[in-house]
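User: Sequence in, structure out. Go.
Assistant: Echoing your sequence, followed by the structure tokens.
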Amino acid sequence: MADMDRLNVERLVLGPISTNCYVIWRGGHEDAVVIDPGASSPRIGDVLDENSLKCRAIINTHGHPDHIGGNGALRDATGAPVYVGALDAHMLADPDDVFHVLARSGAKGSRLDADHTLEGGDVLKVGEMEFEVLATPGHTPGGISLLLAEDLTLFTGDTLFACGVGRTDFAGGDEQALWRSIFDVIFSLDERIRIYPGHGPDTTVAAETAWHGRLRFR
């Protein structure tokens, strides 16, 4: 791949519990995607402006307040549509229903309807990028991960972290579903893939497979 087409991933740590927000674009192209704008922040606009980018899509990996807090402000500023997994769409429309999840953190969701919902197997093309949508429920019923296969890049939200996994003790959490998402979906991918999670540092499929083991306890 030519340098000008190289995938760029800019991580911004936003909000009261340090949620990873990602701005993604290809070199030489103006189309950008913002994943999980967890809080309204001028830093997102700064990254877009500094790199002469236009936000074409806002994607939430799931509907918890610490991942959706900046949706409204960013959509108003850029006109970009908001996407979320279909089973989490109600969380955007009525964040008060899930506010108790993070009540002590101070995180708040912005109330709005998603423009589009996503299902596992969907492919979302934005400019020169094609995001394959993987259904990875467990942390929430509608949790999704976003794969850029050509670039060996995966955004996992709160499904899988470096040496850790998402909580399942919130409303809608399902521990067995989470482990299926990790072992049957994510760990079936190319081990070279770099994982960008919803919190903490990036990692790889190889590193997490080694950490957790290859076989899921049943």
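User: And one key feature?
Assistant: DSSP finds six helices and 14 strands in the chain.
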